[in-house]
Specification:
- This is ABC transporter ATP-binding protein.
- Belongs to the ABC transporter superfamily.
- The chain is elongated, with a radius of gyration of 24 Å.
- The chain is α/β, with parallel strands linked by helices and about 325 residues long.
- The strands form 3 sheets. The protein has a 6-stranded mixed beta sheet, with helices on both faces. It has a 4-stranded antiparallel beta sheet with strand order 2-1-4-5. The protein has a 4-stranded antiparallel beta sheet with strand order 12-13-11-14, covered by helices on one side.
- The protein contains 11 helices and 14 strands.
- The protein starts with about 20 loop residues before the first strand and ends in an 8-residue tail after the last helix.
- The structure holds adenosine-5'-triphosphate.
Length: about 325
Amino acid sequence: MGEASATGPGGASTERVGAAGDGVIVTRALTKRYRGGQLAVDGLDLTVPAGSVFGFLGPNGSGKTTTIRMLMGLIEPTSGTAHVLGRPVPRSARAVLPRVGALIEGPAPYGFLSGRDNLLRYDAADPTADPRTRRARVAAALDRVGLTAAAGKKAKAYSLGMKQRLGLAAALLRPRGLLVLDEPTNGLDPQGMREIRALVRELASDGTTVFLSSHLLDEIEQVCTHAAVMARGRLVVQGPVADLAAGARGRLVVTTPDPADAARVLEEQGVADVVVTEERVTGELPGRDLAEVNAALVAAGVRVRGFGAERASLEDAFVALTGEGFDVAG
Ligand SMILES: Nc1ncnc2c1ncn2[C@@H]1O[C@H](COP(=O)(O)OP(=O)(O)OP(=O)(O)O)[C@@H](O)[C@H]1O
């Protein structure tokens, strides 16, 4: 897929629609160096397939927000290109952004207005929105995010999860080709997180492409079909989530009330990278028959309660690819 657009002589745009290929978001060598010299995004080549729920994963400070701000035309890249829904940004941001629903900063509804009145007001600020169908549009959006029953309550009485849903409802007031959600579950309690994740899955099930950033590996595994992993401004890997995790080997896991003995025996058996966490001892899967390793544990008097190979997680893939832990504290 070629570089996407060109400006003809005299500044006439010879932009080719769809030149960015099938991706809903496509970046090529996208780079942002801030004025202070910080290289926040370094040569990013991202392709977000149509219809995917795409997780944009990385520890704090890895460049996710900077990338999203470039995609939304909020800041200029230092170099490289970005296309959203087939159009170059920031150049065509005004044309493309009405088709993008975004939840970028935390939700900030007017607390003294009800959820419904917040949406009515928001819709009224859109000059292209037909006032005659406003109420129906707002009711449909409230219904979509499960806020119909609470629609008459003042937003200041909403939980953070409800405010987040209200933000999503605002993003859903008009048809969207793409939803961009920056850390949509940040600050929510486990119940709120579950609700937002279920909602994202539901939104995606009718074909809307969803691009969501997160620093939570398990969130990406639960919600996303595809993911890209960032570390220090660079893309580490991208692809279908199932393939990413499969690229890393699983680990041997032994559950036992005798972890110290188990760790010693595993090391004697040639198991590398043995890690003890309370009653769980894990290590790299050895290249030999696991039955022999298990027999050696039992022969040494280790009381084995659980023994097996655990499927590799995205976290294992990240560690294998970067040689670093996935430190969410950044
Ligand atoms: N306006 C700015 N000026 C200078 N440096 C910045 C600016 N914004 C971000 N940075 C730096 O760029 C790097 C990437 O930051 P960015 O916010 O994009 O990361 P992130 O992955 O979104 O992290 P977080 O989840 O904490 O927002 C960091 O080192 C950050 O300190």
